[in-house]
Amino acid sequence: MSDFISPLRFTLRQLQYFDAVARTGQISLAATEMHVTQSTVTSAIAELERALDAPLLERHRSGVVLTYAGHLFLQQAQTVLAAAHDAARQPFKALQELEGEVRVAASYTVLGYFLVPLIAKFQKNYPKVQVIPVELDRQQIEQAVLANEVEMAVVITSNLQERKRFHEIGLVQSPRQLWVAQGHPLEGQTQVSLEQVAQYPYILISIDEGEVNAVRYWQAAGINPSTFIKTSSMEAVREMVALNFGVTILSNMVYRPWSLEGKRIHAIRLPASVPPMEVGLITSKEHALSSVAERFAAYLSMSAKQMS
Hints:
CATH superfamily of the largest domain: Periplasmic binding protein-like II
Oligomer: single chain
Strand order of the largest sheet: 4-3-5-12-6
Helix content: 40-55%
Order of helices and strands: HHHEEHEHEHEEEHEHEHEEEH
CATH class of the largest domain: Alpha Beta
Number of domains: 3
Radius of gyration: 21 Å
Structural class: alpha/beta
Number of helices: 10
Largest sheet: 5 strands, mixed
């Protein structure tokens, strides 16, 4: 007798609710975004947890966070939702005849944590277009755009040195938060001050001029952490925070609630004096964009609005 495998009993709507909860961190905000009641969202999450036989969320006073299982399931849920979106639009809309290529520069952080997934989705919609990502540092990016070696770049705009020479489109403002380990003395706080953060060893990321950005808000506050631990590896930052070597302040764009070893990392709100990481699209004022570049720029702008 063959084994009977029962189908998983969840819907796309439940996946949408789960995705909204994961993004907002609160049942109430997710319900507002989805135009349903909180009880509807709560019931949908409970049904998912029963279907998967695993807890997806941890409830706290300030909201909810994903469990390790929830983090893994979110990636699969987002893949399913993206596929459903493509299935709904592609059979009824003729494929665009846009052809060609566009070179787009970006730094390490922006390329890996923001741009690459958007390039993949754009190329699915425009299969005759090749978007070529070019990883450069900030200085090289500015030079490449001005020399027309790349038609555009997606950058951390606060890092730009020759800002007046570029057309600029704001894409994302990613709030910076404090990262701490499970069991850290600040873990249960809903918001902390820089004075509180300064009492603990501070892990400083050097990529994408992270050291320069950190110094700005520390100097503005007139204080310094007790100890600096410097690294150029984002994964090293995660592991050191998770193992309680120290704390760090980084943007939500690069935040993940778990280290590679499956240890928990908590994010805590900071005062408004710590600015968000601003990501934008820049092009040269001296060079016109190709039709492919214009379409990709419009796509990035539209996608960023949907994400926010």
